[in-house]
Design brief:
single chain, 295 residues, mainly alpha, 12 helices, UBIAD1, transmembrane helix, menaquinone biosynthesis
């Protein structure tokens, strides 16, 4: 039986900023557009957290039963791959998290009257499961970054804005894109760390296709585009949004690590700091929006 600490590690807390940041950033845009609906924003956060933790457990389960998490894996603990938890228990945990997201999403749907949200929610859960699940997982075909950009950028931020304002607008879509770029950078850093083990196990991520150098260039391009996005959103809303550039504090060491070509477990701080950069960017957006439009 896995311990509580092992279950917490299996949930991969370093990835949680990719759930929190889109909701904070989307709420910032809602404030700039006239005002947030905090109850709905909280429900959006529950949906996002449930999906991120759920996809982490689903990935753990699917990779574990396929044997993709072999002894040569350099990342943190995997519950199934290490043998500390039964595959059925990890699978149940994944679907339990998806269920929490579904319930929160249903409450949002009833509250707003936008019944098409049910289709969007189902698409999110299916995309989360088939990332590494099923007989033809798209995460094994180098499409993981597309999933992250769409669902933890465009859908998460755009959905949070729409739920609160009934529209998104240019500033919302640019914000969704830059948050998506940062979320992709988290995944790129993760897959760069695992690149050699993934090649050995036959897992074809974008990193295994681009190689070490190409993946580093991809990472640098993503964080650069995110920085440009912050400036564009500030021009569209309020210059207080430039507080989002505070993310540079965490990105400076990650960029240096990419340039210095660190590998293996030395990339774990890059993964952590990239997630924190995304979170700090979103916090900067929220604080900036609140300073421009005091509650």
């Amino acid at each position: 039986m896995a311990t509580t600490a092992e279950w917490l590690e299996g949930a991969r807390p370093r990835t949680l900023p990719t759930a929190i940041a889109p909701v904070l950033a989307g709420t910032a845009i809602a404030i700039a557009d006239g005002g947030a609906r905090w109850g709905l924003a909280t429900l959006c956060l529950v949906v996002a957290l449930g999906l991120v933790i759920g996809v982490n457990f689903a990935n753990d389960y699917s990779d574990g039963i396929r044997g993709s998490d072999g002894e040569d894996r350099v990342g943190p603990l995997r519950l199934v791959g290490s043998g500390v938890a039964e595959p059925s228990h990890v699978k149940a945990a994944a679907f339990g998290c998806f269920g929490v997201s579904a319930v929160a999403g249903l409450v949002i749907t009833i509250s707003t009257g936008h019944w098409w949200f049910l289709i969007l929610g189902l698409a999110c859960i299916l995309a989360a499961w088939f990332y590494t699940g099923g007989s033809h997982p798209y995460g094994y075909a180098g499409l993981g970054e597309v999933f992250v950009f769409v669902f933890f950028g465009l859908v998460a931020v755009g959905g949070t804005v729409y739920v609160q304002t009934d529209h998104v607008g240019a500033a919302g879509w640019v914000t969704a894109s830059l948050i998506g770029f940062l979320a992709c950078a988290v995944l790129v850093a993760n897959n760069l760390r695992d690149i050699d083990g993934d090649r050995t196990s036959g897992k074809h991520t974008l990193a295994t296709k681009l190689g070490h150098q190409g993946t580093r260039v991809c990472y640098l391009a993503l964080v650069f585009l995110a920085g440009v996005g912050v400036i564009v959103v500030a021009a569209l809303t309020t210059w207080w949004v430039l507080l989002g550039l505070g993310m540079v504090v965490f990105l400076v060491p990650t960029v240096r690590a990419m340039i210095d070509r660190v590998t293996g477990m030395s990339l774990v701080p890059v993964l952590r700091n990239t997630g924190l950069a995304e979170l700090l960017c979103a916090v900067g957006f929220l604080v900036g929006a609140m300073l421009d439009r005091p509650l």
